[in-house]
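Annual report, structural modelling task.

Input specification for the 2-phosphoglycolic acid complex:
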Amino acid sequence: MRQTLVAGNWKMNGSLEANHQLLKSILEGVEAGVNAKVVVCPSTVYLAQAAETLTGSDVSWGGQNLSPEKSGAFTGEVSADMLLNLKCQYVIVGHSERRALFGESDEVVAEKYAAALAAGLIPILCVGELLEEREAGETETVVARQLDAILEKSGVEALSAGVVAYEPVWAIGTGKTASPQQAQDVHAFIRQRVSEKSASVAEKLQILYGGSVKPDNAVELFAMSDIDGGLIGGASLDAAGFLAICRAG
Ligand code: PGA
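The model returned the following structure:
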């Protein structure tokens, strides 16, 4: 039985004041009881604040990105060890915004995934197709390519220590959610592809859905057999809504 995981991707939002309130409210809500494992991913500059508020609680935190390099002359970058220093447990890798806006190729994403894993972080690997790719019937080809980059670089065992998030790009921040069945079909495809390499890794792999998850669609999505939780963007900035999603799992 896979535990439901709900991760909030705060993206480039927040401030010390706003986060203080948000973290406090999430913490209170989680302490009041949720079944899901809850993770928040604030901007890097606020990870120390998350650590200060959440240490010792059931809420984990993580980065939104990392460098594949260990250290050195990489201005503006953040290494896996730096995230660990701030007691992160998780890190998002290959989010579609990183791929589209910052030119991250499948190979770079695979290097980041490997760097996260080597450091002992749990990478949340994002995969997903563009609208034109879905319309051209290429969803499975695209998702397989993104997944295979990890399998080729790090092997299937690398997925036993990570999480996959299926995020159709056309559903991110658009208010358009994949239907539970559309999402389930791709999740089942991902699990099937992993099971070709290792049935046991596939069985245990948490596969999250992301893309306009809201309190009013989370229950239906999380009820699908291969959907093990969500990666939540916009709705994770509102404590009540985020907690409602956490309770949906
Ligand atoms: P959204 O973002 O929930 O705002 O659609 C999801 C994500 O980008 O991870």
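The longest strand covers residues 122-127.
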